[in-house]
Write a structure and sequence with these properties.
- This protein is 22% helix and 31% strand.
- The chain has helices at residues 14-25, 39-45, 92-101, and strands at 7-11, 28-29, 56-60, 67-72, 85-87, 105-112, 115-121, 127-130.
- A four-stranded mixed sheet has the order 1-4-3-2, covered by helices on one side. Strands 5-8-7-6 form a four-stranded mixed sheet, with helices on one face.
- The longest helix is centred in the N-terminal third of the chain and has 12 residues, at 14-25.
- The two termini are 30 Å apart.
């Protein structure tokens, strides 16, 4: 039986990243369970020790296909990603334009194995491809 997993991205601003990626992927931003106003309040209510609480946000595929979690870290991004997301789009250039409006930047365009793609950076500089 396949295992479930989520992709975790270290970042400076989890809420901002969740908003960007929810729009980019047509995912939904996850809210905390129950009556909690935010995830930190949820962690406090669950009794997490202060040194184990983290600032994070997450987005989920509404069709149940996956989850991406964004965790705040103090270090800035350095160097090239060792892992990146690829977004499949029927109209690559239309999605690229939409993502630029959300704050992404185009790094380069190319063609590989007959497929057109655009490599971009998200709002914190993480590379991803649209093809």
């Amino acid at each position: 039986m396949p295992r479930e997993f989520q992709v975790v991205v270290d970042c400076a601003d989890p809420d901002r990243m969740a908003t960007f990626w929810a729009a980019a992927l047509d995912y939904t931003v996850d809210g905390p369970p129950g009556e909690h106003d935010d995830w930190m309040e949820f962690q406090v209510a669950q009794g997490f020790p202060a040194d184990e609480r983290v600032d994070f946000a997450a987005v989920t595929d509404p069709a149940g296909g996956g989850r991406i979690c964004f965790i705040a870290v103090p270090e800035p991004k350095q160097g090239k990603n060792r892992l990146h997301l690829d977004i499949r789009a029927e109209q690559v250039d239309a999605l690229v334009a939409r993502l630029r409006d959300l704050g992404a930047t185009i790094l380069r365009t190319g063609r590989e194995r007959g497929q057109y793609f655009v490599t971009m950076a998200d709002i914190e500089g993480n590379e991803f491809c649209v093809h």
